[in-house]
Design a protein that fits this description.
By secondary structure, the chain is of the alpha/beta class. It folds into 2 domains: 175 residues, Lyase, Ornithine Decarboxylase, Chain A, domain 1 (Beta Barrel), CATH 2.40.37.10; 246 residues, Alanine racemase (TIM Barrel). Strands 4, 13, 14, 15, 16, 17, 18, 19 and 20 form a 9-stranded mixed β-sheet that branches. Strand 6, helix 4 and strand 7 form a beta-alpha-beta unit. Helix 8 packs parallel to helix 9. It is globular. It binds ligand LLP. Ligand LLP binds next to helix 10 and helix 11.
């Protein structure tokens, strides 16, 4: 061991060398690995930029959540948007996960991966009627409805299909979630959910409607939240709604869905204490007949994934040092879009040069194209391999073809074996579906 975490140069908590204890990508004999497999060997075989996922770590995280909430009747509905690769979905599905989806495309992937539709919940403020029809025909567990108009549309579609739509209302608890403003969803002025008062009215409408049936209550307050407090405050609000619904409509809801958003340790700060959260949830569910649904995405796959990038050039200009790599915002948009701070390490100890403060940037023609800024880094030579950590969630799935850059390959390492989970795109893929005649 002895991985050097390249300093973030920003507020940071916890041990300075946190990445050296990284269970997904340990360092042995001076080389970072995924399990036992050398990252340099993977980069050599599959080229770069490259996404690498540690399947053993994903399962470890899944079981850690299950273990923490053990006494509670729990469905872990993996949030597909975090990493929708079929191999990842299949791995989690076979371990017993359901899925939290937000589109027909995510439902398609989920079914392709063999996940039982009866374990699928469908969230999102803008479900189309086509998506509703598709999900009703497949028999999903529930629609998480976010407005009165959506509810009316769902009722109509359900009657057209000739089935009863199972519904949970997504409540906006007006809770402040301490995270980036783009990933905060629990405050009253967010576009998500409805107020507790409106939720009670919607349940009354659901009970009256022949095509709708109330099955649960839902909340999701944001992403990468590192404290239990906001989750528990949100749970108090939805349990209050469940009580009011029982009194006002006589409906007994079957489950409370607390959403996802459980924070992981990254280059900026530490993780949510999942056990403290579980304790608070267990206290609140005690004596109630509600089961629990959780929708973790990042918590399951975030630190199990890394983006490998090759250093192309080192450039000094304007008083700055730029480490230019073959990956940038097209492969991982989190640093530029959310100010995400990913730990970055050299894969091979032998590549370490003198430590300098550097910007790690990509080849994309945007000044906002960077993977890290102002990091203290042992400056690597051209050809060195960098490992950008915590990239298993919202990494590849948010990658784009901007600048006509083919998207990278994805490799899953599981049980000591590396398999190609998605091939690298070729130039032909860039123009597939276009017409020039
Ligand atoms: N449930 C719902 C309804 C969601 O909208 C989300 C994420 C999740 C669960 C899973 O959240 P997680 O456990 O992964 O934090 N692209 C941003 C994150 C956006 C999250 C969107 N919704 C990022 O890279 O930070």
């Amino acid at each position: 061991m002895g991985t050097r975490l390249l300093s973030t140069g920003r507020r940071r908590q916890g041990p300075p060398d946190r990445a050296s204890a990284d269970p997904a990508f340990p360092r042995r004999d001076g080389v970072l690995r995924c399990g036992d497999v050398s990252l340099e060997a993977l980069a050599h075989e599959y080229s770069t930029p490259l996404y690498v996922y540690n399947g053993d770590r994903i399962l470890e995280r899944f079981h850690a959540v299950r273990g923490a909430f053990a006494p509670i009747d729990l469905l872990i509905a993996y949030s597909v948007k975090a990493n929708p690769n079929l191999a990842v979905l299949r791995l989690l599905g076979e371990a017993g996960a359901g899925a939290d989806i937000v589109s027909g495309g995510e439902l398609y992937r989920t079914l392709r991966a063999g996940i039982d539709p009866e374990r699928v919940v469908f969230a999102g403020v803008g479900k189309t009627r086509d998506e509703m029809r598709y999900a009703l025909e497949q028999g999903i567990m529930a629609f998480h409805v976010e407005s009165a108009q959506e509810l009316a549309a769902l009722g109509e579609v359900a009657r057209g299909v000739g089935v009863i739509a199972p519904v949970a209302v997504r409540v906006n608890p007006d809770v402040h979630s301490p995270t980036h403003e783009f990933t905060r969803t629990g405050h009253a002025s967010a576009k998500f959910g409805v107020s507790p008062d409106e939720a009670v009215l919607l349940y009354a409408a659901i009970v009256e409607h022949p095509g709708l049936s109330p099955v649960g209550v839902d909340v999701h307050i944001g992403s990468q939240i590192r404290e239990p407090g906001p989750f528990l405050a949100a749970l108090d609000v939805v349990l209050g709604v469940a009580d009011r619904v029982r009194r006002a409509c006589g409906a007994d809801l079957r489950y409370a869905d607390l959403g996802g958003g459980f924070g992981i340790a990254d280059g900026e700060a530490g993780a949510l204490d999942i056990h403290a959260l579980a304790e608070g949830v267990a206290d609140r569910l005690e004596g109630r007949s509600l089961s629990l649904v959780l929708e973790p995405g990042r918590f399951l796959v975030g630190d199990a994934g890394a983006l490998l990038a090759r250093v192309l050039y080192v450039k000094r200009s304007g008083g700055k040092t730029f480490v230019i790599t073959d990956a940038g915002m097209t492969e991982l948009i989190r640093p530029s879009h959310y100010g995400g701070v990913h730990a970055i390490s050299l894969v091979c100890d032998g590549d370490k040069g003198a430590v300098e403060r550097v910007d790690i940037v990509g080849p994309v023609c945007e000044q906002g194209d960077f993977l890290a800024r102002d990091r203290r880094l042992p400056v690597p030579p051209p050809g060195a391999l960098l490992c950008v950590r915590q990239a298993g969630a919202y990494g590849f799935t948010m990658a784009s073809n901007y600048n006509s850059r083919p998207r990278p390959a994805e490799v899953l390492v599981h049980g000591g074996h590396a398999t190609l989970a998605r091939r690298r795109e070729e130039y032909g893929d860039l123009v597939r579906g276009e017409h020039d005649d």
